[in-house]
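User: I'm writing a short report section on ligand binding and want a predicted complex to refer to. Could you take this sequence and protoporphyrin IX containing FE and write out the structure as tokens? A short remark afterwards would be nice.
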Amino acid sequence: MLGSTTISCALFFFLFIIFKIHHRRKCCKYPIFRDYPFLGMLPTILWNLWNIHDFITKELKKRHRGTAEFLGPWFTNMNYLITSDPINVHHMMSKCFDNYVKGSEFRDIFEAFGDGIFVADSETWKYNRSLFHSVFKQRGFELFQEKIIQNKVERSLIPLLDHVQEQESVVDLQDVFNRFTFDNICSVILGCDPNCLSIEFPDVACEKAFDQIEECIFYRHATPKTFWMFQKLLQVGQEKKMTKAYKEFDQFIYANIESKREELKRAGRDTITSALTWLFYLIATHPLVEAKILEEIKENFGAIDIGKKLGVNEVKKLVYLHGAICEAVRLYPPIPFERKQAIKDDILPSGHLVNSGTIILFSLYSMGRFEETWGKDCLDFKPERWISERGGIVYEPSYKFFSFNAGPRTCLGKDLSFIQIKMVAVAILSNYSIQVVNGHIPIPNLSIVLLMKNGLKVRIRKREN
Ligand code: HEM
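Assistant: Sure. The structure tokens for the complex follow:
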């Protein structure tokens, strides 16, 4: 009797597995990886996690219109449609904007960002957006930023770099930029400068805590929700780190202001740090580009002495430098992937079916590296790409150059970012030459902001003006 029950159960189990495998194959017309029984496509992701952005790019390039489906382990909701097709981006970010939202699962994953503009949808988002818009688009805000950055460059950045070059020591430029942008954002939001950028390189617990939060959010994308919720309940693994970091970060914020501003910190600090770090890496490894940037600075402003500070209006004239920044954020987008969820069923221009509730992942990293979009030299660092025959800046539609998002949710800090990056780049490049330490290989980190895992180790030398 027991024997026949066991056999029936085993048969039922076997048939269930066959049915499930068959059903998943039928539903998933454009798989990105091999779909293993029970574990789905997760093993391939975990195996290649160390190199995830390049790996996904390579796989997407082989798929129809750079779009494919990812199925997570059985009985989880971890199913994504991944795309890097600009026409799909235009469809979801602009044409059918109302059908693609951040959604409640996004808010769960990004809970550390509270209910701010980055996670909000519909009316809450509209309200937040108009609030931020009214601040960022004021001329006074631009000038306020200009003053803060000029002060920071003159009083902290230049003295620190002078000190480093006198000592002939190696410095982590990414750490320098992190401290610079952290001081800057605290000055803007909190009205006080924590002075993290100083020759003592003080330990800043709050800053590290924020990096930790971003790393944990990245892992939540690569883990089934039930799994990370369970980890959170038991307070183990990444989730334990997340809670600790969150407490530390909150202590700092509450000690300084009453309302939380995590979202602005992500916008204003990490993205700029990322853009500056990759930009300097690319410039340091492309001497011809460096020479052209210096030439442009010289042509516009003559020889620049250490104390000379360029303002908003001056840096706007630097077209070649603008092209170099566009190239840096095209090849290394500070936010390497984005996520949306469909409200209703839809069909994408690429022909892929979207069911209500489908989660879409946009690989911004892959989008900057597609030959169909950027041509055969898509992997080259080529600021000339952004300069028109008449010497102006080439305009590329945001659904193609997606690093600052597209449609109604386009980044509100885009113009401000170019100004900040240019001011810092001119101050450094006109005073110092940068050499990446021999053998230092920049490895992208695993986080929601694309930084270098081991920083950017460089030596600096004073320029003979
Ligand atoms: C190189 C620098 C930057 C890059 C590449 C960048 C990129 C982006 C991207 C991709 C988004 C969409 C994020 C998402 O929806 O998940 C975004 C949104 C946003 N960014 Fe930036 N950002 C940069 C700098 C800044 C700065 C300096 C600020 C302001 C101080 C800022 C303010 C915002 C705001 C407020 C949003 C939300 C817009 C909305 O949802 O309506 N960003 N940014």
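A remark for your report: Strands lie at 67-71, 79-83, 100-101, 171-172, 337-342, 346-347, 353-354, 359-363, 432-436, 457-462. Residues 303 and 359 are 52 Å apart (CA to CA).
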